[in-house]
Amino acid sequence: MSKAAVDVPLKGGFSFDLCRRNDMLSKKGVQPPSFLKTGTTIVGLIFQDGVILGADTRATEGPIVADKNCEKIHYMAPNIYCCGAGTAADTEAVTDMVSSQLQLHRYHTGRESRVVTALTLLKSHLFSYQGYVQAALVLGGVDVTGPHLHTIYPHGSTDTLPFATMGSGSLAAMAVFESKYREGLTRDEGVKLVTEAICSGIFNDLGSGSNVDVCVITKGQTEYLRNHQLPNPRTYINEKGYGFSKKTEVLLTKITPLKEMVEVIEGDAMEE
Amino acid sequence: MKQQSNWSPYDNNGGTCVAIAGADYCVIAADTRMSTGYSILTRDYSKICQLAEKSVMASSGFQADVRALQKVLAARHLIYQHQHNKQMSCPAMAQLLSNTLYYKRFFPYYAFNVLGGLDNEGKGCVFTYDAVGSYERVGYSSQGSGSTLIMPFLDNQLKSPSPLLLSAQDAVTPLSELEAIDLVKTCFASATERDIYTGDKLEIVVLNADGIRREHMELRKD
């Protein structure tokens, strides 16, 4: 058997082959395509019976709003949810991937997933990519060991906190949390505080906006409150609406007959 | 590797301006949000300045430069009034603005202006500028962060489908004053949805034979 040199692509990891070419192009003035970032406000807090997560719904591409109502609270397991800030593709891909891994793990162990499992899978993935996977996450859930809330940074470091905020609106949201958070909040108080923190991000941070999404996780039950609050209705709608003139103008009519390229000769069918 | 400078004398405070000229009126509008980076500095800052009886300028960009420009134009207008014993006409103010901007060709005013008003015949006029003074009289224009969103819509509504039917020289729209104000409100409500630097409040100034009138409309604050 001949040992032909076949170029098998390396398993996993980024391929940095095009970096030199990209560098050369950018020196010649070619702009690289921009990413869709979720300039965002995401928060989480621990209350009496579990964890509450919150997020805004605006996705931006530079100064333009690309999606006015995107979902930033991602499903990881029935008892674990994760908010994502940073590059939208990265947060989506990494949470989907770990969610699948958790499901396989549940089948393997026969048990409910634990938050620390999701945490370890996420942080080791992000660390191995050395920060190139730009996902900043707020991970929260309730398992047999109790309620848990963690923040995960793009380079792979984590914190375990009673309340946390991430994204461009994190300072606006943290200002609210630091003023009003206390231990042992009830469900309604917790949801109200999370909503206030997200609204603070929505109105004071230009990278965040539109609506408030909330997710309440307790032992045995999860409530995903999509568009829990819609504090930004459109301010002016013209009743008549605006139409587009359907006039199409014929500038020139010219008929070009098809030229015959090949002469077709009626011939005998080929004989076998 | 040559060291690049990391201090810039300019900042962009965002915002959008629009002006539409009619047969006997002119509508000039701008939002009132002033921002820097991802933060809001204030929700209630006027970008519109009345330079003369029949000339109103709206400017987006770096508001410190805009303020300095407004002061220079106001001073020059005062001198004109002393020397000629009359107010400057809108086309005259348009030329003055262009010259003032070009004067600082090599350290420009970071200001994107639209000048609106009534010309000597009482017809509406709109002049649109770039940062160094290149200008043109048009029937409508928009400048600022939301201009890329608003201009195609205005072209669609106000320009004829083909340049063969109506050339750009006919610089006055056939809309009535109320229709033009309605159009401006729709433009801003739409631009606010998709541009993060536009929002809070809309300030509309209308110039016509009866004088000058101001209107306000709330915009999204997120």
TrEMBL record, chain A:
Broad class of the protein's primary localization: cytoplasm
Gene Ontology MF term list: threonine-type endopeptidase activity
Catalysed reactions, as listed in the record: Cleavage of peptide bonds with very broad specificity
Keywords for this protein: Cytoplasm, Hydrolase, Nucleus, Protease, Proteasome, Threonine protease
Organism: Actinidia chinensis var. chinensis
Active site, renumbered: 40 (nucleophile)
Compartments it resides in: Cytoplasm; Nucleus
Gene Ontology biological-process annotations: proteolysis involved in protein catabolic process
Self-association state and partner proteins as the record states: Component of the 20S core complex of the 26S proteasome. The 26S proteasome is composed of a core protease (CP), known as the 20S proteasome, capped at one or both ends by the 19S regulatory particle (RP/PA700). The 20S proteasome core is composed of 28 subunits that are arranged in four stacked rings, resulting in a barrel-shaped structure. The two end rings are each formed by seven alpha subunits, and the two central rings are each formed by seven beta subunits. The catalytic chamber with the active sites is on the inside of the barrel.
Gene Ontology terms: cellular component: cytoplasm; nucleus; proteasome core complex
Job of this protein: The proteasome is a multicatalytic proteinase complex which is characterized by its ability to cleave peptides with Arg, Phe, Tyr, Leu, and Glu adjacent to the leaving group at neutral or slightly basic pH. The proteasome has an ATP-dependent proteolytic activity.
InterPro entries: Ntn_hydrolases_N (IPR029055), Pept_T1A_subB (IPR000243), Proteasome_bsu_CS (IPR016050), Proteasome_sua/b (IPR001353), Proteasome_suB-type (IPR023333)
Lineage of origin: Eukaryota, Viridiplantae, Streptophyta, Embryophyta, Tracheophyta
Family affiliation: Belongs to the peptidase T1B family.
Descriptive protein name: Proteasome subunit beta
UniProtKB/TrEMBL annotation, chain B:
Nucleus as UniProt keyword: yes
This protein's UniProt keywords: Cytoplasm, Nucleus, Proteasome
Sequence similarity: Belongs to the peptidase T1B family.
Name of the featured protein: Proteasome subunit beta
Function (record text): Non-catalytic component of the proteasome, a multicatalytic proteinase complex which is characterized by its ability to cleave peptides with Arg, Phe, Tyr, Leu, and Glu adjacent to the leaving group at neutral or slightly basic pH. The proteasome has an ATP-dependent proteolytic activity. Component of the proteasome, a multicatalytic proteinase complex which is characterized by its ability to cleave peptides with Arg, Phe, Tyr, Leu, and Glu adjacent to the leaving group at neutral or slightly basic pH. The proteasome has an ATP-dependent proteolytic activity.
Pfam families in the cross-refs: Proteasome
Matches recorded under Gene3D superfamilies: Glutamine Phosphoribosylpyrophosphate, subunit 1, domain 1 (3.60.20.10)
One GO CC term on file: cytoplasm
GO BP term, pick one: proteolysis involved in protein catabolic process
Localization (cell): Cytoplasm; Nucleus
